[in-house]
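Today's session is about reading a structure prediction critically. Students often jump straight to the picture, but the first step is always the sequence itself: look for stretches that repeat, for charged clusters, for runs of hydrophobic residues. Only then move on to the predicted structure, which in these notes is written as discrete structure tokens rather than atom positions. Here is the chain we will use throughout the hour.
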Amino acid sequence: MSPRFVVLGGAVLVAVVGTAPEVDGGRLGALKPWSCPTAANGHNLFAKGVEPYATRSLGIPECCAACTADASCGAWFGKVIQGQQTSDGQVGAPSASCKLYSHHAAGSLDQGGCPQPPSGQAECGSAIFSPPSPPPSPPPAHVSATVESVPAWTISRWLATMSLVYCWAPDAAGYANGSIASWAKATKMTTARFPAGTASYWNWENPSGYMGQSTLSKSWVGPAAPKEDWMSLEEYLELCKAADLTPLIGVNYNCHNYQKCSETSEDSIARAVRQVKYVVSQGFPGAFWYIGNEDGAPQHATLIAEHCRAIKAVDPTLKCGWNDNNLNPDSLTAFLKTTGNLMDFAEFHGKWPYGGTPGLPSWTLEQYLNEVPLVDHKSRLTWRDKIAVLRTAAAEAGRPNLMLANNEYGLGKESAFASSPVGNFTRFTKSLVMVEFLLEMYVGGYDMAVYWDNGDGGTPPNSTSPASGTSISDHMLLDSGASYRMNPMHIGFEMLATAQNKSMLRVNTSAFRVHGFAAWDQTSQTLELFLINKYETAMNVSVALPKVAGAPVPSLTTVASLVDTEDHWGTQVQGAVACANAVCALDLPALSFSRIYASP
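Below is the predicted structure for this chain, in token form.
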């Protein structure tokens, strides 16, 4: 197993651990004690919004020992302030303090420099850790699930979506013949993010058609890519019309921190105003507009606000947003303080197990199957907690209705996925990860979530050479190396889309690797239950159905499940269900995602 980080003063103290701490009661193993230091220096624990469960007057090694002796301790911070000199020249006795944090709190902590008192010196020591993972327990013989009867909130209508990197959206991928538009409409997709990650440097009036290249650059000499290889703004709006989508469009406000070009703010604002005027003229007032993409938004809040103010003068009904991949309560509060009530949504981007190359270990299939709920391994927060702390910060800033979004959720780089004796990730299990990731956006109460991406930037095989395709990933919705065939995740996305704009009913289960939620439609008095089975065997499940106020108890009638196939492209199968006295019994296939429909 790979160690989670454990830092003690200036040294690294290695403890063998498994995945990030699990928060479900009863599954934490006993801590293994290790040697504690005699002294340490320079490491604090930031604990915003997190309180220790115990505070004691202990030195650094004693604080460490107290934590290792307590099975509930997940982190400790010890601080010793050397005796401070008083006005009469006397030196007081050193003071020591020790804070112990639970496993539940450990995911919200971070490390930094040791805080120094106004006078005198401080020594600090800290450690954040999780206990060794217990041996895998055998799958339970039976799983009980209970659907709560009180609606928690109305599920957002902006969770069934697409992302379109404009230079990865060729005509041949199903855009010219209308097949993608037809699928999106049938699936009840509500928006599509365009031009996705290229928004920070594209020139909407004269696109290059290439990733990473802008015609606004002084070094641009052209020519542009063939028009059939990329999607223009005009073609995007035609897709929106055909699929009944609300546009979600990017604005270039600083040419990716001026790395791609150099221009004045007056020029970029004028171009953005022309862009909005064009979109409105095509019949799309009230669109979503995200200003910039991964280009240091916190440092450019004033400039972003200037762009938003200018385009809202053209269309007061539009919604402005900004992107900050490191969005946290402090940065959110600071941005809102600068921009006032101008902005309508904030987005970050997050992948599983993590995006980019942060130096974290790769994840195995076994680790994924035992991780519930899914974790953002960069921040060490579950995706549910990540949005919850932002929601609280927005409310405290006077913006409780600010929309919060993960607008590039997806799979990390190939290097983030490891092989293991238990088995390797396949096309199907990667898709299952993405279906569960989207499920987490529903359960977490996200306002918007956009899957990254429809395309992968590759090319399909030609008719004379089946192996000639240059697909770079089976992580995307469409696999260009397989003639733009949809990866298995599309089946789960289609199932989940039906829950939009309905009432969230929480679901409690007796086995953590079977989990999900239910959606209640008050108008039709129908219920949909969504359950993922992360066990590698079929699970017999009994579901206790709710009696929602003013409605009869429904009965489950149909079961549709996304399951694996020999070639790992997956398929949808139908199952049987039997109900009696508001309790229904069914079997969930191994490694599957299911939608169970209930009617009065």
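Discussion point for the tutorial: Residues 141 and 314 are 61 Å apart (CA to CA).
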